[in-house]
Structure formats: structure tokens, C-alpha cells
Amino acid sequence: MKTQQISFGDNVRIRMRPVTERLGVAGKTGSVTGETTPSATGIPVIGDGAQNIAFSVEVDDATIWIAPDLLELVDHAPGKVVIIDAIPKRWVRAESGKWVEELSSRDSLLRRLAGMFRRGEK
């Protein structure tokens, strides 16, 4: 079992506990899509709220909010790509869990187009 810290983008497995078994999610894997502070948001959380942190996990096309002690890190989802439409960059997940920023192909196209317009101004 891996005990590394879980964060956005990680692949996780839901631990076998009475509460997760009762809800039918025990042993399932999913991807972490966010985190929150339940005392501030009031979001209902699976598990003990004593840590006052919960992760949003996509499991079987559904989103659940779950306490971190009910999650086990599978891996950091190496190769996962995040793209934000308004930003000409992308972030690729390394095996270590670090996000590596890269220029997206959209950035290259924008630079080429801008260069063509600059040449026409002569």
C-alpha cells in the first residue's frame, strides 16, 4: 500500500471499510478531480470529517466526496494532460506527480499566425 500524499489528478482506490462497502464503492478506482474543506462548504462527505478535508473522486461516471483516510494512492496518473481553453499551454503529469508545463500546439499556431501578420506590416 502506498502512503504518499494524494492530490489533484491522482488515481486512487477506495479502501474496504464498512461505510464504503455499504455504499458499493469499496475497492473501486477513480481519479481525484478536486478537494474541499467540508466545514467551509457544507458538502456531504463519505467517512470521518475529523480531518476537515475531502477529495472529489470520479468513480463509475459519478462524483463522490470522500475523506482521505478512505483512499489509497494507485499512481500519479503519468501522462495525464490538462488543458485550459483560454491558455495556450498544457500541463502533463510526470510519474513523480509533478505537473510539467508545455506549450500546446495551439500556442505554436498562434505564434505562426501572429508572425504572418507582423511580416505583412512592413
Summarize the structure.
The protein has 122 residues and is α+β, with helices and mostly antiparallel strands. The protein is built from 3 helices and 8 strands, in the order βαβαββββββα.
What is the chain-wise order of helices and strands?
A: EHEHEEEEEEH
Helix content: 10-25%
Adjacency order of strands in the biggest sheet: 4-3-2-1-5
Please count the beta strands (DSSP E, at least 2 residues each). 8
Task: Report on the biggest sheet.
Answer: 5 strands, antiparallel
Identify low-pLDDT runs. none
- For the CA atoms, what is the radius of gyration? 20 Å
Overall average residue pLDDT: 86
Approximate shape: elongated
Structural class computed from helices and strand pairing: alpha+beta
* Percentage of residues in DSSP E strands: 25-35%
Q: How many domain modules?
A: 2
Distance between the termini: 64 Å
Please work out how many helical segments DSSP would assign: 3
